[in-house]
Write a structure and sequence with these properties.
This protein has 264 residues and is an alpha/beta fold. Helix content is 36%, strand content 22%. α4 runs antiparallel to α5.
Length: 264
């Protein structure tokens, strides 16, 4: 799996030849380092300026595709003119889209029930955060001692068992998080396809991500002839065909993209 910057001359030629580049990023762990608390994962001013500059160029459509809720994502990034896809793409705003998955809102009451149950059941776990994002729910245990990891996972599985068995909910896992989501055939891959359709379907899609929930996004862009970039260690298992080591290197690529669009 080549390092993106090492093969930039060949990648940049592909980007330069495309009439429109759909440039998409995950947020936590991709544009910003993963923080102890979600609110602390602040975007650097330099990255914000680079995203804003790229979004202002005709050859790019820029977006963020994240597990965060849409209002939270918009507030954390705070760059006008971007496409924002929250809750793994269950809600999308920008680029001509104002989309909420038509079946997702029916699960809001169930997620409130699960949230209240998990807050009670996990009350003894230090550092736990149960985050109900209306359309999905995330249990963060990054600040909990490692010895609690199995208890957290088991508790989420038990709390959602009847909904999972009924086919209503599904559980996904990421870096120190367990997520409860509506059991819908929808995720970052489908969201990226929808965003691409909104800009004519002929754009070259590029997606940067770092976690398990990004894998279907990688597959979607590569199936469309685009470029998927995993952000993390070289030995990590991923379907992405390119990689970067850190969010700081993602920032370097933002600068390279701006030079590609404006060589002067």
């Amino acid at each position: 799996m080549p390092h993106l910057i090492n093969v930039w001359p060949s990648v940049s030629r592909r980007l330069a030849d495309a009439p429109l580049v759909l440039l998409l990023f995950d947020y936590d762990g991709t544009l910003t380092p993963i923080a102890a608390f979600p609110d602390d994962a602040t975007l650097s001013e330099q990255a914000r300026q680079r995203l804003s500059a790229l979004a202002g160029m005709d050859r790019f459509m820029v977006g963020i595709v994240s597990g965060r809720g849409l209002p939270d994502l918009e507030e954390m990034v705070s760059v006008p003119g971007l496409v924002y896809a929250g809750n793994h793409g269950l809600e999308i705003k920008g680029g001509g889209l104002d989309f909420v998955h038509p079946e997702a809102t029916a699960f809001e009451a169930l997620l409130v029930e699960v949230t209240e149950l998990l807050e009670r059941e996990l009350a003894d776990v230090p550092g736990i955060l149960v985050d109900n994002k209306k359309l999905t729910l995330t249990v963060h245990f990054r600040n909990s001692p490692d010895s609690y990891a199995a208890q957290v996972d088991d508790t989420v599985v038990a709390a959602t068992a009847r909904y999972v068995e009924a086919g209503q909910m599904k559980i996904t896992r990421g870096k120190k998080v367990v997520e409860v989501r509506p059991n819908l055939d929808w995720g970052k891959g489908k969201a990226i396809e929808k965003i691409r359709e909104s800009c004519g379907g002929s754009s070259l899609p590029v997606f940067f991500g770092d976690d398990q929930t990004d894998e279907e996004g990688f597959a979607a862009v590569q199936n469309a002839g685009g470029i998927a970039v995993f952000v993390g260690p070289a030995r990590e298992s991923t379907v992405a065909l390119h990689r970067l080591d850190t969010p700081a290197e993602v920032g370097e690529v933002l600068a390279l993209l701006a030079q590609l669009a404006d060589p002067a």
